Amino acid sequence: MTDGTAEDGGRPCPVCETPMYHRHCKYVCPSHGVVYDCSDTFY
């Protein structure tokens, strides 16, 4: 069971397609760092 903040493989990174992690209102790519945050509109 995940709590939504764990490394559960979410949306793919738009640059490298690696699953991003959801952390504190941000999507973080393990290779590129923060890609999206709450103020961004996407998907």
From TrEMBL:
<protein>
    <submittedName>
        <fullName>Uncharacterized Zn finger protein (UPF0148 family)</fullName>
    </submittedName>
</protein>
<dbReference type="InterPro" id="IPR049701">
    <property type="entry name" value="HVO_2523-like"/>
</dbReference>
